[in-house]
Amino acid sequence: MATITLVQGDITRVSADAIVNAANSSLLGGGGVDGAIHRRGGPAILADCRKLRASHYGKGLATGKAVATTAGKLDARWVIHTVGPRHSHQEDRSTLLASCYRESLRVADELGARTVAFPAVSAGIYGWPIDDAARIAMATVRETPTAVDEVRFVLFDDATYQAFARHLC
Ligand code: AR6
Fold first, then answer.
1. Is 34 an annotated catalytic residue?
2. Cβ–ligand 1 contact at 124 (below 6 Å)
3. What pLDDT, in 10s, does the model give residues 10-48?
4. pTM of the complete model
5. How do strand 66-70 and strand 150-155 relate by DSSP bridges?
6. For residue 33, which of 79, 64, 76 has the smallest C-alpha distance?
7. Which sequence spans correspond to the domains of the chain?
8. Contact 24, 122 (CB under 8 A)
9. Which of 75, 86, 136, 157 can bridge 126 by disulfide, Cβ–Cβ 3.0-4.6 Å?
10. Does the beta carbon of 22 sit less than 6 angstroms from any atom of ligand 1?
11. Is the CB of 119 within 6 Å of ligand 1?
């Protein structure tokens, strides 16, 4: 089981084997953490994403799945792109959010990554209530068998950091 650590900050500034991106199914960039990763990582990431779209992911990456690219100029070897679900009051999409963490760790294991940095997937533009997003993230990482040594949650603001801290023990 991976050691879980929490830090507050900008995920594009961390050093890790793999940095997870809260992407959308187009894999072609967006706002939030996705925009920040592409900005700081540079065009090599988008070039890899375009190759994925031209090959195995013609229709894009499905919600709950994950796929890796280069990390470009980020201080990491890979970016693992995962697509979180939009929060819905009508439908319980928790299993899809849990799947983002499980699938990202599966890809990290395939790559041989030992340290993996995650943002709070779906907790921004996709509207997931932060306490529930933190609960699902922490429980899923805790329950997922992996060879990753350290999962570091990099939480952008204090409220998000505090929500994750409440679910640490
Ligand atoms: N470092 C760490 N966390 C960040 C950063 C950063 N640099 N920037 C934002 N966050 P979001 P989502 C936090 O909206 O909800 C994009 O347009 C943010 O405060 O980035 O999964 C994609 O292309 C929040 O806690 O991702 C999709 O269309 C968390 O990261 C859509 O947004 C996730 O917020 C995905 O929405």
1. yes
2. yes
3. 999 999 999 999 999 999 999 999 999 999 999 999 999
4. 0.98
5. unpaired
6. 79
7. 3-166
8. no
9. 86
10. yes
11. yes
